[in-house]
Every structure is written in C-alpha cells, then in structure tokens.
Design goal:
Blueprint (H helix, E strand, L loop, with lengths): L2 H18 L6 H25 L8 H17 L5 H23 L5 H20 L1 H4 L5 E2 L13 H25 L1 H11 L1 H6 L4 H27 L1 E2 L6 H14 L5 H20 L4 H15 L3 H16 L7 H12 L5
Helix pairs in contact: 2-7, 2-10, 2-11, 2-12, 3-4, 3-5, 3-10, 4-10, 7-10, 8-10, 11-12, 11-14, 12-13, 12-14
Length: about 350
C-alpha cells in the first residue's frame, strides 16, 4: 500500500476509534481519554520543538500552567465561558513561548535544558505568591463543563468530543505547518545548523517560532486540563508534569506525530497499570517498565513498530512466477539463434 493511501487510512481508523470509544468502554475510561487528548496536544508541541528542531525543554509544564490559569481566572473571577478562555490561553502561552524562545537563542543542549528546568521549578512558587489572582495554595475551583442546550449528552461526553476535536485540529495545523519550508528548516537546524545557516535558514526566526507554536499547544492543553479537573492549583503544574510530558514524547516517538498520541496513552495508563501490578511500590514497576521500553524501543514505540513492519515486509517472499511465464522463459532459452 502506497504511503499516500496508507496515511489517510490510518488517520481515518484513528478518528473512527475515537468517535466510537464512548459506546464500548465505561464512563471512567472515557474520562481518562479526555486526559489522553490533553496530553497528546502538549506532547505534540514537544515533538515539534524537541523532535523536529532539537531544542530540549524541561519546562513545558510552565506553559501548561499559564494556559490553565488564564482559562481558570477568566472563568472563576470574571465568569467568562470556556470557549473564550481557551483561545486566550493559547495566545498568552504563545506570547510567553516566543519570549522564552528569544532568550533561548543563546542557549543550546544542556544549557537550554537547565534554563527551561529552572522555569518549570519556579512556576509553582510564582503561582503561590500571587494569592489574590491565582488563589495561592488553595488554587481555583471551576464549574464543571456542561453540554450546550439542545445537545442531549452529559457534560463529560461533551468534553470528550470537544477535547478530541481540538486535538485533531492541533494535529492538522501542526502537520500543515511542518510539511513545507518551515518543517525542512527545523530539521535542517536540528541536523546541521551551520549548513542550514549557510543555505539562508534564519535560526532566530525558526527557533523562536518553534518555541512559540509549542507553547501555544501547551497553553491549549493546560486550559483543557483545568476544564477537565474543574480545579487548578500550583501543585497541579509541578516540574513532574514537565518530565512526564517529555517521557511521553520519548516513549511514543520523537520523530512522528503518532508518537504524541501513543505517548499520551502510555503516560495516562502506565501508572494505573503499575499500581495494579504492585500497590506497595508502583513507582518501581513504572520505572522498570520505562527502562525496558527504552532498551527495546530506543526510538519510541511508534519507531519500533515501524522497524518491525519494515522487517516483516522485507522477509515476505516474492511471488513465484506463473506457469506461462516459466514456459515462455524456457522457450526463449531453447530457441535457436540465427547465425
């Protein structure tokens, strides 16, 4: 099957599974998959930033915190609807991401990782300090999401479909963004920055834009995270969230958008499975599982599946020639030649 046919087919199958999932699984699993959509949007930003551009970020949770608190403050303090808060959260996080991107231009590798690490660590303390705005340690409580009038579904089911619709739009927009010159420039700067610059690629523009788009996606994810939990606090967006998102990106696969979806499923359900295996030490099971996965699939689950598929295709024997073809070949060999 050609890639031009296989890719839309895989997307269609994924959309169909997501649409039909609430009809075949319990309601608590549907609620878990709302978080999967949230994590997938955030990890998608990391794939664009780190996987395609090579900029390591350990502070992605800070962008989620900004998006979550913008949506929460607008809903809690001003009573604005969520459909206004989500785009404003994206704009605020994107602007902050561009600012961080400009600062990060002078940093690379572990230095950039350390700078973003500081951002992720400082964010909870900053949120606790401005109690009059953020609610301090107590955070902000939000009204649960309800379906619009005239739509006969529960608020949880409505949030599920809205979250996945926004996730689909984010994946589509990101795919269109990296398909052309922008994506080629990001990969060139990642693989060989000196050669890319010599060919006219502007690192300031592309690296800053990559940081900004990654932060936009994180802000959207943070807003939906706040809507799903109906509560935000500084402890919701700790440094552990940034590490969890990076783990999801690495386990899913840094070089493909499918890695965001697979990684989101892993970081949502792997801790639950680890807790069922060993309630006394779930973190041990979780850690051992991560080590084994990195040992056997160092390029992520999606990368491992792709490698296995290529091996199976190469090992598939070619079809034997038909009898008429064999007969024609033998006649051609036995046919006398003219002198």
């Amino acid at each position: 099957m050609s890639p031009s046919v296989a890719r839309p087919l895989r997307v269609a199958i994924a959309v169909a599974l997501i649409a039909l999932l609430p009809a075949v699984v319990p309601s608590f699993v549907v609620f878990d998959f709302v978080y999967v959509a949230v994590y997938a949007i955030a990890i998608l930003g990391l794939i664009v930033l780190t996987g395609m551009n090579g900029q390591i970020s350990l502070g992605h949770g800070a962008f989620m915190a900004l998006g979550g608190y913008v949506a929460a403050i607008l809903a809690h303090r001003l009573g604005w609807p969520y459909w206004i808060g989500v785009p404003l959260a994206a704009i605020a996080s994107g602007a902050f991401g561009i600012l961080i991107g400009v600062i990060a231009l002078r940093l690379a590798g572990v230095y950039l990782a350390l700078a973003t690490f500081s951002l992720g660590v400082a964010t909870p303390s900053f949120l606790k300090h401005y109690k009059s705005i953020t609610g301090g340690f107590g955070g902000l409580s939000l009204d649960p999401v309800t379906a619009p009038l005239g739509i006969p579904v529960s608020g949880q089911l409505w949030l599920y479909y809205v979250a996945w619709a926004i996730a689909g739009a984010a994946f589509l927009a990101s795919a269109l963004l990296v398909r052309g010159r922008f994506g080629r420039a990001l990969r060139a700067l990642r693989d060989n920055p000196i050669a890319a610059i010599s060919f006219g690629v502007n690192p300031t523009y592309y690296k800053t834009l990559a940081f900004g788009w990654s932060a936009v996606l994180a802000g959207i994810a943070g807003a939906f995270f706040a809507m799903t939990t109906a509560y935000v606090s500084p402890d919701t967006f700790t440094f552990a969230l940034s590490i969890t998102l990076l783990i999801g990106a690495v386990l899913g696969g840094m070089l493909t958008f499918w890695g965001a979806l697979v990684g989101a499923i892993v970081i949502e359900f792997l801790p639950l499975v680890a807790q069922q295996i060993n309630e006394a030490a779930p973190s041990v099971v979780y850690g051992v599982t991560l080590i084994l996965m990195m040992f056997f699939v160092p390029d992520g689950i999606v990368g491992g599946v792709q490698r296995l598929t290529r091996r199976l295709v190469r090992k598939t024997p070619s079809p034997l020639p038909s009898e008429p073809s064999v007969l024609a070949a033998s006649m051609a060999v036995d046919r006398p030649t003219r002198e």
